[in-house]
Amino acid sequence: MSHERFFSKVNGPTLHGFNVIRWLDEVAPRHLAGGGDPRHVTEYLLASGWTNHSVPGYPHVLLESPDRLLHLTLEAEQDELMASWRIHPAQGHAWSSQFGIHTPVEIIAAFVDGLSSAGPRPKEAELWGLAASRGWTVRLTGRERIALSPDETGFLSRETSLAETPISRWVVLVSVPLSERRHRWIWRASIDEAAPPAALAGFIEALTDPAPLLRSEGQTPDHAFGFLDSRRSPVTPEQHRLQHLRRLEAAQRTGTDAPSPAPPPPRTGSPQAAPLTRLRYALTPSPRPRTLMPNLSIPSADDVAQATATLAQVQNYLHTDPSAADVLPVLAALLDEDTGVPILLGDILRNAARLVAQESKAESDEIHLIVAGLRVAAQEATDLHVLHWDVQRLTAHFSSATEASATR
């Protein structure tokens, strides 16, 4: 059955059978232009040789690079501060990048374009200098630098986590003021500094570019009304469609024509890679349906203290230098893909943010920031869930090593 017969957004800009676009507008500043058409990224990658592993019937996009080293996931989140786009290595967690649903696809495309480009890592001062050359105001806040867009609705910062092994990442927050002390968040993005250098530089270059973006009716966020400079573009919808098709044709010419090599067969006793049909759980775990227990007891502070005491017991146990074979079963339970600490902690923080937002009587920037912080922490905690695949691989590795020693 062809999608062309359906009244759907999928029939534009490539097809205009039902969604007749009468004109296009040039919208600035670009970071308030809205997400745009996601196919600006997804169709281009498919034309470049990426493969589609999306699950039929589920509203998402799962793409894998021709060399099977990178994954892209698009699962729409209505919360402005939650990640809808995720791009990171297919194996391990060397770096990650996340983009909100209203991040302009042209800016995401600039990041994607740099993933396969080799080059030296730009110095931090060069990236700040790039933003400053585009009219963004770079200033110091304590020991950290930030950059504000000319209209002060875009905020670029470089943050370093307080973990034992610090992780530096570049973060963008876009918001519009509602009053003197209140703001409405539009989108958030974060890119680990360990991401490919050309991709990070391309993202910042596209973010700070003063050139407007093309948008059709209804593509700009409602909250950005009154903060946009919008004027009718001389580019017609048909010309825009042809530009999109030419871009896809160019990608097909430069992309890989040879089929991707088949993955090596898994070794006996070793866990296979995460099934592609479950890739979304490894990237952006969705809330699982809950079964309400008829006699659910309300947990007390003492119950929670008992749980944290158990974690402290594990912590103290690891300080005694036990063998890896003894530790891995504990880690497997701790990082279980369904009941492990990352999933549970992420869900707890996410629901806490929801409850605070619902019951807060005072609408203030402070409450909004606290709720936003809880939601971001919830996502970061949930992301640690992917470690359970590493634990499985380690378990297989040490099991194989033990078997090899026994046969000598």
Summarize the structure.
37% of the residues lie in helices and 16% in strands.
Radius of gyration: 24 Å
- Count every beta strand, where a strand is a DSSP E run of 2 or more residues: 13
**How would a crystallographer describe the biggest sheet?**
10 strands, antiparallel
Count of separate DSSP helical elements: 11
Give the uncertain stretches in residue-range form: 13-18, 256-294
Helicity range: 25-40%
The geometry reads as globular
Biggest sheet: strand arrangement = 2-3-4-5-6-11-10-9-8-7
Order of helices and strands: EHEEEEEHHEEEEEHEEHHHHHHH
Secondary-structure content class? alpha+beta
The average pLDDT score comes to 80
- Assess the beta-strand content as a share of residues: 15-25%
Write down the domain tally: 2
What gap, in angstroms, lies between the N and C termini? 61 Å
What's the layout of helices and strands?
Layout: E1 25-28, H1 39-47, E2 51-52, E3 61-64, E4 70-74, E5 85-89, E6 97-99, H2 105-113, H3 124-133, E7 137-141, E8 144-148, E9 154-160, E10 168-177, E11 183-192, H4 197-208, E12 213-215, E13 229-232, H5 237-254, H6 279-283, H7 301-318, H8 324-334, H9 341-359, H10 365-383, H11 387-407
Antiparallel strand pairs: 1-12, 1-13, 2-3, 3-4, 4-5, 5-6, 6-11, 7-8, 8-9, 9-10, 10-11
